[in-house]
Structure prediction request, 389 residues.
Amino acid sequence: MTAKTRVSIRRCEGYDDNELDEAFVRALHDIGFDSGRFRGARVALKPNLLNASAPDKAVVTNPAFFAAAVRIVKAHGGTPVLVESPAFQSLERVAAKTGYDAIIAAERLEVWDNRSVAVIMNDEARRFKRFEVARPLLEADILFNLPKLKTHAITRLTCAVKNLFGTIPGLAKSRWHMRAGTGDEFPELILDLYGALSAIFSGKRSMLHLVDGIMGMEGDGPGPSGTPRKIGVVLAGTDAVAVDSVAAGLIGLDSANIATISSAAARGLGVGRMEDIEIKGVELLDIAVRDFKVPASRLSSRLRDYVLKMDALRNLWVEKPLPSPDRCTLCYQCRTICPAEAIGTAEDGASVPKYDYTACIRCYCCMEICPEAAIRLEKGKLQRIMDWF
Ligand code: SF4
Ligand code: SF4
Prediction:
Protein backbone atom coordinates (compact mmCIF):
# COMPACT_ATOMS: atom_id res chain seq x y z
CA MET A 1 0.00 0.00 0.00
CA THR A 2 1.41 3.42 -0.95
CA ALA A 3 1.69 6.04 1.78
CA LYS A 4 -0.89 8.78 1.71
CA THR A 5 0.11 12.40 1.20
CA ARG A 6 0.28 14.15 4.55
CA VAL A 7 -1.19 17.51 5.43
CA SER A 8 -0.92 18.97 8.90
CA ILE A 9 -3.55 21.10 10.58
CA ARG A 10 -2.42 22.81 13.77
CA ARG A 11 -4.42 25.19 15.89
CA CYS A 12 -2.91 28.63 16.23
CA GLU A 13 -5.10 31.31 17.77
CA GLY A 14 -2.99 34.37 17.05
CA TYR A 15 0.27 35.83 15.82
CA ASP A 16 2.24 35.57 19.05
CA ASP A 17 5.86 34.57 18.27
CA ASN A 18 5.96 31.63 20.69
CA GLU A 19 2.66 30.23 19.51
CA LEU A 20 3.72 30.52 15.89
CA ASP A 21 7.10 28.90 16.51
CA GLU A 22 5.45 25.98 18.27
CA ALA A 23 2.80 25.55 15.56
CA PHE A 24 5.45 25.61 12.81
CA VAL A 25 7.63 22.99 14.54
CA ARG A 26 4.66 20.70 15.12
CA ALA A 27 3.32 21.13 11.60
CA LEU A 28 6.66 20.39 9.94
CA HIS A 29 7.11 17.36 12.18
CA ASP A 30 3.60 16.14 11.24
CA ILE A 31 4.43 16.09 7.54
CA GLY A 32 7.85 14.50 8.07
CA PHE A 33 9.79 17.54 6.89
CA ASP A 34 13.27 17.49 8.41
CA SER A 35 14.16 21.10 9.29
CA GLY A 36 17.81 20.05 9.00
CA ARG A 37 17.25 20.40 5.26
CA PHE A 38 17.41 24.16 5.73
CA ARG A 39 21.07 23.88 6.72
CA GLY A 40 23.22 25.56 4.08
CA ALA A 41 20.18 25.94 1.80
CA ARG A 42 18.98 29.01 -0.05
CA VAL A 43 15.32 29.23 0.80
CA ALA A 44 12.97 31.34 -1.35
CA LEU A 45 10.17 32.57 0.92
CA LYS A 46 7.00 33.41 -1.01
CA PRO A 47 4.34 35.14 1.13
CA ASN A 48 1.21 36.76 -0.28
CA LEU A 49 1.81 40.52 -0.53
CA LEU A 50 -1.04 41.39 -2.84
CA ASN A 51 -1.07 45.08 -2.00
CA ALA A 52 -0.34 47.73 0.60
CA SER A 53 -2.89 46.96 3.28
CA ALA A 54 -2.70 46.72 7.04
CA PRO A 55 -2.17 43.12 8.25
CA ASP A 56 -5.52 43.08 10.12
CA LYS A 57 -7.34 43.32 6.77
CA ALA A 58 -6.14 39.74 6.09
CA VAL A 59 -5.14 40.54 2.51
CA VAL A 60 -1.47 39.68 3.06
CA THR A 61 0.33 36.88 4.83
CA ASN A 62 0.67 38.30 8.32
CA PRO A 63 4.17 39.77 8.91
CA ALA A 64 4.52 37.86 12.19
CA PHE A 65 3.83 34.62 10.27
CA PHE A 66 6.48 35.56 7.71
CA ALA A 67 8.94 36.46 10.49
CA ALA A 68 8.39 33.06 12.10
CA ALA A 69 9.26 31.38 8.77
CA VAL A 70 12.44 33.48 8.54
CA ARG A 71 13.31 32.43 12.11
CA ILE A 72 12.93 28.73 11.50
CA VAL A 73 15.02 28.86 8.32
CA LYS A 74 17.79 30.85 9.99
CA ALA A 75 17.71 28.79 13.19
CA HIS A 76 18.63 25.76 11.08
CA GLY A 77 21.38 27.51 9.13
CA GLY A 78 19.50 28.42 5.94
CA THR A 79 19.58 31.66 3.97
CA PRO A 80 16.11 33.12 3.39
CA VAL A 81 15.36 35.23 0.31
CA LEU A 82 12.09 37.16 -0.02
CA VAL A 83 10.48 36.41 -3.39
CA GLU A 84 7.35 38.45 -4.00
CA SER A 85 6.15 41.09 -6.42
CA PRO A 86 2.89 42.87 -5.60
CA ALA A 87 0.44 43.15 -8.47
CA PHE A 88 0.66 46.92 -8.77
CA GLN A 89 2.55 48.84 -6.10
CA SER A 90 6.29 48.63 -5.43
CA LEU A 91 7.47 46.06 -2.91
CA GLU A 92 8.95 48.93 -0.83
CA ARG A 93 5.54 50.59 -0.50
CA VAL A 94 3.77 47.34 0.30
CA ALA A 95 6.48 46.34 2.80
CA ALA A 96 6.15 49.70 4.57
CA LYS A 97 2.37 49.41 4.94
CA THR A 98 2.32 45.75 5.94
CA GLY A 99 5.21 45.87 8.41
CA TYR A 100 7.48 43.65 6.32
CA ASP A 101 10.03 46.49 6.07
CA ALA A 102 11.00 46.08 9.74
CA ILE A 103 11.57 42.34 9.28
CA ILE A 104 13.60 42.88 6.11
CA ALA A 105 15.79 45.41 7.94
CA ALA A 106 16.15 43.46 11.20
CA GLU A 107 16.95 40.17 9.47
CA ARG A 108 19.00 41.83 6.68
CA LEU A 109 16.97 39.87 4.21
CA GLU A 110 17.88 39.49 0.61
CA VAL A 111 14.91 40.67 -1.48
CA TRP A 112 14.08 39.86 -5.08
CA ASP A 113 14.35 42.84 -7.45
CA ASN A 114 11.44 42.08 -9.77
CA ARG A 115 13.34 43.32 -12.82
CA SER A 116 15.47 40.21 -12.49
CA VAL A 117 13.59 37.39 -14.18
CA ALA A 118 14.40 34.00 -15.66
CA VAL A 119 12.54 31.88 -18.17
CA ILE A 120 11.24 28.51 -17.03
CA MET A 121 9.51 25.99 -19.26
CA ASN A 122 6.85 23.37 -18.73
CA ASP A 123 7.15 20.67 -21.36
CA GLU A 124 4.04 18.96 -20.00
CA ALA A 125 1.93 22.14 -20.15
CA ARG A 126 -1.64 22.01 -21.39
CA ARG A 127 -1.72 25.60 -22.69
CA PHE A 128 1.21 27.75 -21.58
CA LYS A 129 4.77 26.44 -21.74
CA ARG A 130 6.93 29.47 -21.08
CA PHE A 131 7.00 31.71 -18.01
CA GLU A 132 9.19 34.57 -16.85
CA VAL A 133 9.54 34.23 -13.08
CA ALA A 134 11.69 35.48 -10.22
CA ARG A 135 15.34 34.68 -11.00
CA PRO A 136 16.21 33.78 -7.37
CA LEU A 137 14.03 30.70 -7.76
CA LEU A 138 16.63 29.18 -10.06
CA GLU A 139 19.26 29.43 -7.32
CA ALA A 140 17.01 28.30 -4.46
CA ASP A 141 17.17 24.84 -2.90
CA ILE A 142 13.76 25.15 -1.26
CA LEU A 143 10.68 27.13 -2.29
CA PHE A 144 8.96 27.90 1.01
CA ASN A 145 5.45 29.00 0.06
CA LEU A 146 3.56 31.07 2.68
CA PRO A 147 0.06 31.69 1.32
CA LYS A 148 -2.90 33.31 3.03
CA LEU A 149 -6.13 31.30 3.08
CA LYS A 150 -8.65 33.48 1.21
CA THR A 151 -11.60 33.32 -1.10
CA HIS A 152 -11.09 34.31 -4.73
CA ALA A 153 -13.68 35.68 -7.12
CA ILE A 154 -12.51 33.52 -10.06
CA THR A 155 -10.79 30.44 -8.63
CA ARG A 156 -13.03 30.50 -5.49
CA LEU A 157 -10.04 29.67 -3.26
CA THR A 158 -6.57 31.18 -3.20
CA CYS A 159 -4.11 29.23 -1.14
CA ALA A 160 -0.94 27.23 -1.88
CA VAL A 161 -1.25 26.68 -5.65
CA LYS A 162 -2.58 30.12 -6.59
CA ASN A 163 -0.05 31.95 -4.38
CA LEU A 164 2.73 30.85 -6.71
CA PHE A 165 1.27 33.07 -9.46
CA GLY A 166 3.07 35.81 -7.50
CA THR A 167 6.45 34.49 -8.70
CA ILE A 168 5.58 36.33 -11.94
CA PRO A 169 6.57 40.00 -11.68
CA GLY A 170 4.08 42.82 -10.99
CA LEU A 171 1.89 43.97 -13.82
CA ALA A 172 2.85 40.99 -16.00
CA LYS A 173 0.30 39.06 -13.90
CA SER A 174 -2.62 41.18 -15.14
CA ARG A 175 -1.39 40.76 -18.74
CA TRP A 176 -1.61 37.00 -18.19
CA HIS A 177 -5.28 37.52 -17.28
CA MET A 178 -5.83 39.04 -20.71
CA ARG A 179 -4.04 36.16 -22.39
CA ALA A 180 -5.69 33.37 -20.45
CA GLY A 181 -9.15 34.83 -19.82
CA THR A 182 -11.05 34.17 -16.63
CA GLY A 183 -12.92 30.93 -17.26
CA ASP A 184 -11.41 27.54 -18.06
CA GLU A 185 -8.02 28.83 -19.11
CA PHE A 186 -7.09 30.81 -16.03
CA PRO A 187 -6.85 27.78 -13.69
CA GLU A 188 -4.97 25.94 -16.45
CA LEU A 189 -2.49 28.81 -16.59
CA ILE A 190 -1.97 28.60 -12.83
CA LEU A 191 -1.41 24.85 -13.13
CA ASP A 192 0.96 25.15 -16.08
CA LEU A 193 3.04 27.50 -13.93
CA TYR A 194 2.75 25.18 -10.93
CA GLY A 195 3.90 22.29 -13.12
CA ALA A 196 6.94 24.28 -14.28
CA LEU A 197 7.88 25.12 -10.69
CA SER A 198 7.27 21.54 -9.54
CA ALA A 199 9.73 20.31 -12.17
CA ILE A 200 12.40 22.69 -10.81
CA PHE A 201 11.74 21.85 -7.17
CA SER A 202 12.04 18.10 -7.46
CA GLY A 203 14.75 15.62 -6.50
CA LYS A 204 17.12 17.32 -4.03
CA ARG A 205 15.23 20.61 -4.32
CA SER A 206 11.80 20.85 -2.77
CA MET A 207 8.67 22.88 -2.17
CA LEU A 208 7.16 23.38 1.25
CA HIS A 209 3.81 25.05 1.90
CA LEU A 210 2.81 26.62 5.20
CA VAL A 211 -0.55 28.37 5.15
CA ASP A 212 -1.51 31.41 7.21
CA GLY A 213 -5.02 30.30 8.08
CA ILE A 214 -5.08 32.11 11.42
CA MET A 215 -7.02 35.09 10.09
CA GLY A 216 -8.41 34.09 6.71
CA MET A 217 -10.66 35.98 4.33
CA GLU A 218 -14.24 35.28 3.33
CA GLY A 219 -16.66 36.97 0.93
CA ASP A 220 -15.36 38.97 -2.04
CA GLY A 221 -11.67 38.02 -1.69
CA PRO A 222 -8.81 38.12 -2.28
CA GLY A 223 -8.36 41.90 -2.00
CA PRO A 224 -9.57 44.61 0.37
CA SER A 225 -13.22 43.97 -0.63
CA GLY A 226 -13.11 40.63 1.21
CA THR A 227 -13.84 40.26 4.92
CA PRO A 228 -11.31 39.00 7.51
CA ARG A 229 -12.45 35.84 9.26
CA LYS A 230 -10.79 34.01 12.11
CA ILE A 231 -10.04 30.37 11.33
CA GLY A 232 -7.24 29.77 13.82
CA VAL A 233 -5.07 27.26 11.97
CA VAL A 234 -1.73 26.71 10.32
CA LEU A 235 -1.69 24.15 7.51
CA ALA A 236 1.44 22.46 6.17
CA GLY A 237 2.33 20.06 3.40
CA THR A 238 4.73 19.39 0.58
CA ASP A 239 1.93 18.86 -1.96
CA ALA A 240 0.22 22.19 -2.68
CA VAL A 241 -2.80 20.49 -4.24
CA ALA A 242 -3.41 18.37 -1.12
CA VAL A 243 -2.91 21.41 1.13
CA ASP A 244 -5.49 23.34 -0.91
CA SER A 245 -7.90 20.44 -0.80
CA VAL A 246 -7.76 20.44 3.01
CA ALA A 247 -8.04 24.26 3.07
CA ALA A 248 -11.15 24.04 0.89
CA GLY A 249 -12.67 21.43 3.21
CA LEU A 250 -12.00 23.68 6.20
CA ILE A 251 -14.13 26.49 4.78
CA GLY A 252 -16.86 24.34 3.28
CA LEU A 253 -15.81 24.32 -0.38
CA ASP A 254 -15.94 21.14 -2.42
CA SER A 255 -12.52 20.67 -4.01
CA ALA A 256 -14.18 18.91 -6.96
CA ASN A 257 -15.52 22.37 -7.93
CA ILE A 258 -12.19 24.14 -7.65
CA ALA A 259 -10.33 23.75 -10.92
CA THR A 260 -6.90 24.45 -9.43
CA ILE A 261 -7.44 21.31 -7.32
CA SER A 262 -9.53 18.99 -9.50
CA SER A 263 -7.65 19.68 -12.74
CA ALA A 264 -4.31 19.49 -10.93
CA ALA A 265 -5.19 16.07 -9.56
CA ALA A 266 -6.35 14.91 -13.02
CA ARG A 267 -2.99 16.00 -14.44
CA GLY A 268 -1.07 14.13 -11.74
CA LEU A 269 0.30 17.35 -10.22
CA GLY A 270 -0.87 16.43 -6.75
CA VAL A 271 -3.45 14.70 -4.61
CA GLY A 272 -6.91 16.25 -4.59
CA ARG A 273 -9.16 13.59 -3.04
CA MET A 274 -9.55 13.83 0.71
CA GLU A 275 -9.61 10.05 1.04
CA ASP A 276 -6.04 9.98 -0.33
CA ILE A 277 -4.78 12.53 2.18
CA GLU A 278 -3.63 11.72 5.71
CA ILE A 279 -4.44 14.60 8.03
CA LYS A 280 -2.15 15.00 11.02
CA GLY A 281 -2.57 17.23 14.05
CA VAL A 282 -6.19 18.29 14.44
CA GLU A 283 -9.20 16.55 12.90
CA LEU A 284 -10.69 18.51 10.02
CA LEU A 285 -14.24 18.12 11.33
CA ASP A 286 -13.25 19.48 14.73
CA ILE A 287 -12.07 22.75 13.30
CA ALA A 288 -14.06 23.30 10.08
CA VAL A 289 -15.80 26.68 9.84
CA ARG A 290 -19.39 25.89 8.94
CA ASP A 291 -20.72 29.33 8.04
CA PHE A 292 -17.74 30.62 6.07
CA LYS A 293 -18.94 32.94 3.29
CA VAL A 294 -17.61 31.46 0.07
CA PRO A 295 -17.98 33.13 -3.34
CA ALA A 296 -21.35 32.20 -4.83
CA SER A 297 -20.62 30.89 -8.29
CA ARG A 298 -23.40 29.50 -10.41
CA LEU A 299 -21.29 28.95 -13.50
CA SER A 300 -18.67 26.33 -14.15
CA SER A 301 -15.49 27.81 -15.60
CA ARG A 302 -16.39 26.39 -19.04
CA LEU A 303 -19.84 27.97 -19.00
CA ARG A 304 -18.32 31.19 -17.72
CA ASP A 305 -15.99 31.28 -20.74
CA TYR A 306 -18.99 30.82 -23.02
CA VAL A 307 -21.15 33.46 -21.33
CA LEU A 308 -18.34 36.02 -21.23
CA LYS A 309 -18.09 35.89 -25.02
CA MET A 310 -21.78 36.81 -25.43
CA ASP A 311 -22.54 40.49 -24.91
CA ALA A 312 -26.22 39.82 -24.27
CA LEU A 313 -25.55 37.29 -21.49
CA ARG A 314 -22.42 38.63 -19.86
CA ASN A 315 -24.09 41.33 -17.75
CA LEU A 316 -26.96 39.04 -16.83
CA TRP A 317 -24.92 36.11 -15.57
CA VAL A 318 -21.48 37.20 -14.45
CA GLU A 319 -20.75 39.54 -11.54
CA LYS A 320 -19.38 42.89 -12.62
CA PRO A 321 -16.99 45.11 -10.66
CA LEU A 322 -18.82 48.19 -9.42
CA PRO A 323 -16.95 51.14 -7.89
CA SER A 324 -18.66 52.97 -5.05
CA PRO A 325 -18.82 56.80 -5.12
CA ASP A 326 -18.75 56.78 -1.30
CA ARG A 327 -15.30 55.25 -1.13
CA CYS A 328 -13.56 55.96 -4.43
CA THR A 329 -10.79 58.57 -4.28
CA LEU A 330 -10.19 58.57 -8.05
CA CYS A 331 -6.65 57.28 -7.59
CA TYR A 332 -6.96 55.36 -10.88
CA GLN A 333 -4.90 52.38 -9.74
CA CYS A 334 -7.73 50.26 -11.14
CA ARG A 335 -7.30 51.88 -14.56
CA THR A 336 -3.56 51.21 -14.54
CA ILE A 337 -3.90 47.52 -13.73
CA CYS A 338 -6.89 46.75 -16.00
CA PRO A 339 -5.53 44.46 -18.75
CA ALA A 340 -8.58 45.04 -20.98
CA GLU A 341 -8.40 48.86 -20.92
CA ALA A 342 -12.00 48.78 -19.77
CA ILE A 343 -11.63 51.62 -17.25
CA GLY A 344 -11.58 55.26 -18.28
CA THR A 345 -11.52 58.70 -16.73
CA ALA A 346 -14.56 59.70 -14.68
CA GLU A 347 -17.10 61.54 -16.76
CA ASP A 348 -18.03 65.14 -15.94
CA GLY A 349 -19.23 65.31 -12.34
CA ALA A 350 -18.83 61.55 -11.68
CA SER A 351 -16.89 60.46 -8.63
CA VAL A 352 -15.87 57.03 -9.94
CA PRO A 353 -13.97 55.96 -13.07
CA LYS A 354 -16.00 55.05 -16.14
CA TYR A 355 -16.27 51.29 -16.67
CA ASP A 356 -16.88 49.75 -20.08
CA TYR A 357 -18.58 46.44 -19.24
CA THR A 358 -18.51 45.23 -22.84
CA ALA A 359 -14.69 45.33 -22.78
CA CYS A 360 -14.37 44.04 -19.18
CA ILE A 361 -13.16 40.41 -19.05
CA ARG A 362 -14.14 40.01 -15.36
CA CYS A 363 -10.63 39.33 -14.12
CA TYR A 364 -11.32 41.44 -10.98
CA CYS A 365 -7.75 42.73 -10.89
CA CYS A 366 -9.25 46.19 -10.24
CA MET A 367 -11.10 44.92 -7.19
CA GLU A 368 -8.01 43.13 -5.88
CA ILE A 369 -5.84 46.21 -5.91
CA CYS A 370 -8.29 49.02 -5.07
CA PRO A 371 -6.73 50.51 -1.91
CA GLU A 372 -10.06 51.86 -0.66
CA ALA A 373 -12.03 48.58 -0.99
CA ALA A 374 -14.31 50.72 -3.17
CA ILE A 375 -15.13 47.99 -5.70
CA ARG A 376 -17.68 45.32 -5.00
CA LEU A 377 -19.13 42.59 -7.15
CA GLU A 378 -22.58 43.32 -8.48
CA LYS A 379 -24.53 40.22 -9.46
CA GLY A 380 -26.18 39.99 -12.85
CA LYS A 381 -29.97 40.18 -13.07
CA LEU A 382 -30.38 36.49 -13.79
CA GLN A 383 -28.15 35.60 -10.88
CA ARG A 384 -30.30 37.71 -8.58
CA ILE A 385 -33.46 36.02 -9.82
CA MET A 386 -31.91 32.59 -9.25
CA ASP A 387 -30.84 33.66 -5.75
CA TRP A 388 -34.39 34.77 -5.01
CA PHE A 389 -35.75 31.36 -6.02
S1 SF4 B 1 -12.23 52.42 -7.66
FE1 SF4 B 1 -10.52 52.19 -6.23
S2 SF4 B 1 -8.70 51.94 -7.51
FE2 SF4 B 1 -10.33 52.75 -8.82
S3 SF4 B 1 -10.07 54.97 -8.77
FE3 SF4 B 1 -11.53 54.46 -7.16
S4 SF4 B 1 -10.31 54.21 -5.30
FE4 SF4 B 1 -8.88 54.13 -7.03
S1 SF4 C 1 -12.61 46.40 -15.32
FE1 SF4 C 1 -11.71 45.24 -13.64
S2 SF4 C 1 -12.61 43.18 -13.89
FE2 SF4 C 1 -12.92 44.27 -15.81
S3 SF4 C 1 -11.15 43.70 -17.07
FE3 SF4 C 1 -10.63 45.61 -16.04
S4 SF4 C 1 -9.54 44.97 -14.20
FE4 SF4 C 1 -10.62 43.19 -14.99
Remarks:
- The mean pLDDT is 93.
- The chain has two domains: 5-287, 301-388.
- The pocket of iron/sulfur cluster (ligand 1) is lined by residues 323, 328-334, 353, 370, 372, 374-375 (CB under 6 Å).
- The longest strand covers residues 206-219.
